[in-house]
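A note from the maintainers: we've had questions about how concatenated examples are separated. There is no special marker in the raw files; a new sequence line simply starts the next protein. For clarity in this README we add a label.
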Amino acid sequence: MVRYVFIFLLPFFNLGESLKNGQCTRSPEKTNIDLNITDGRITGITGVTAEENKPYIAFKGIPYAEPPVNNLRFEPPVAKKPWNGTLNCTYDKSQCIQGSNPVAGSEDCLFINVYTRSLTGKSGVLVFIHGGTFITGNSSETLQGPDHFLNEGMVFAQFNYRLGVFGFISTEDLVVPGNLGLKDQVVALKWIQKNIAFFGGDPKNVTLFGQSAGSSSISYHMQSELSKGLFQRTIMDSGTSLCLWSLARDSRSTAFKIGSTLGIVTNNSTKLITGLKNISYEALQEASSRIYTQVTLNNVLDGFAFGPVQEVVHDGAFFTGKSEEMLRTGKYTKVPSLLGVNSNEAASAKSVSGIIRLFLAQFDLSPISLAPADLNNERGIFQPKRVGANARIKCEYFNCLSISLASEDKISEFISNDQFVRPVRKTAIDISQYSTTYMYVFSYVGALGGSLNRTLKGVGHTEELAYLFKSNLSNISEDDTLMRRRMVRMWSNFAKYGNPTPIQDPLLQNITWSATHGNNVTYLNIDKILQVSLNPFSDKMEFYDKIYKDFGTPPYSTY
């Protein structure tokens, strides 16, 4: 957990409108709009977008699945049954359970929000999947206000999915195979296919867009049989299934530790899950939060206690393979993709290296802790290949000296490369062999993203989102506004056309963002000047390629 302190460390007001011929039109007051969809009738509310004051309708808190409570806790999601009457969908509903002391949210949380400029036509659909290390986050417009994408003519949707122990517990057998949160996402995507036309969206023009854990989720959807046919393009910001943190490696042990903490002492999966279903959600969340921290801190570079897993093979499995092997060999849904990283993903948090430094002693004491968790070697502390990889990494980043004495710059560079740049680049290399792929590095340092006036250079994790979603900041600089317009235009272009620069556009400095193909990575450096370049972070990426070649044993799951 501490390792990702830096990762996840916008009031809303609108004028009203009325509806005329399926279009929003301005009126002095907010207006409620009723709409019939597949499962029943819902009421939305009108608004106008930030900056351009374009009218839209928001339908918030639409249930897409039955509440996963009581006997449905730890079970695959069940699509929402039709209802009688009219549901009030004018406000955000509860987020999924998260946090501790106090616990926030509710188990009844599987809701989707849809925003549209028009209830007629067939507009492109942008579906955002939130991040939050698989333990936090929600679909609220307070966090992800879609105004700028609405200004570009998109229909925008976002949804909650189960988190933490409720969404990612696994007994690594058929009792609870795992990936419940990802299976929630599948049901939400199926709901979009059935219903988005009622909102003026085109179900055959759906782009999945996510950040961090949400981006990693999308990468898994590309590899899941359950998700086939549910989307046509993907945008992945700062995360893919190849990230070390994107795969939980010891879920069964974690599940039984939680049970033991709550007095359920057993080695039988059925007894464990039966017992956990009878625990209050508050007690379960508090206990799982404690175990989460303990497990994660056992090796802070090894990934999270809760996250996607490789399920045992069974009907209804979401994911059962080795991700890097599947992408490299073309065993995934081949759709156009846009993906990338920020220039220094570990730069976000204040004194991140100072926080992490408290836990760096283990890296000096252990001869294997810096070695990537996915080298596929025995995990013993004196395993020769892991020892060799550890020593080489320590010398490359820390001059073979004590890591606890390393500078903030070196620690942040290591974390950024190890946890984000390397796996995202490898994903681009793998999928570009089979499908159109655009890669970027977001390097623009501005006040809107929070990257001014700090010691660490570069753009940190999540900071690009400030240039995509509505901001509540006032007095935004001209440079920041221009960068926001450029980012939204490129992301929207890709969602509409599968190409971020389909025409010469003065707003985009008339550039042509070329797709990448193979090992020689073409990418767009997004800064005040937009520049197409080759091979981002080339020295360190070549170094890691050699680490895997010399010390790894393919096929790999992550990279």
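[label: protein 2]
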Amino acid sequence: MLSRHYLRVKTLQAVYSFFIGGETDLSKGRQELFDAIEGISELMMYQISALLEVRDFAENKLEENKKKLRPSEADLDPNRKFIDNPVIKILRENETIQNRIQSLKINWSEFQEQFRKIYFAMVEWKDYKEYLDSPADSFEDHKIFVAKLFKKHIAFDGNLRAYYEELNLHWGEDSITSGLNLNNWIKSLDENNETTHIPGEVFNSNALPGNDDDRDFVKELFDKCIMNSEEYDGMIQKKISNWEIDRINQIDMLILKLGLTEILEFPRIPVKASMNEYIELAKEYGTPKSNAFVNGVLDKLVAELQEAGKIKKSGRGLKGS
């Protein structure tokens, strides 16, 4: 369910925490990594709960309008298409989802002002007005609208992201990945297939034959990077003769070590794919010059390792890659 890029990011964070914290227990560090990744499933429940809260806010608003001193005809007989949306109803009535939301004790009582803002932005939204006015009433039509609504007004809302970050330091950033995954999940809902009515497992265990599943990928990447850290220090030092190891940005060093780990230990991942991934991580988490530094050092290391025959790739189209 999660992208390999996201798994690499979480592994980088875990390796950084392992070394910065002076940790020596590999199994403990690995378990903390698994917990951090699996924690995104809790974040997903918060985001689903936020969607349901918008729906409830809308219903409460309709009820308030009926109690106006001089209610209009529209107030007395409102359009309930959004309130009665069958996709949202599935989420509301799904026992697994509701049990998880309740177990997390999610409470939006102090966040109503933000939901008021989301609601009023929604009712002025062109797609919302078209949805209410459209005679189309298939499950697919309702699903398309909910996916649009979630992506536009909930998944990436800045105030919600700030709130998630208060709950968990990494959740502000993770909410982007979580939001995209939930948006895709909403699009995949099948009215008649209950197995689609809850988000899939965080770790994808349905890897292609011969490939590592996500949990194995993360475990091997983390473990081998930690275990071979000193060896990688020596390899990297030879390629940066003008610099002392301790003068190199620590994030850059860890990105290089993870890159080496993947290139040497994962025979089914092309070298170029691994290099591109870690250059991208350097852009995201390093200094402005980190991507050029990581690119240059990895290029030199790969050339030397290939010449020595130490990079072993297997699988169709991978030999020599």
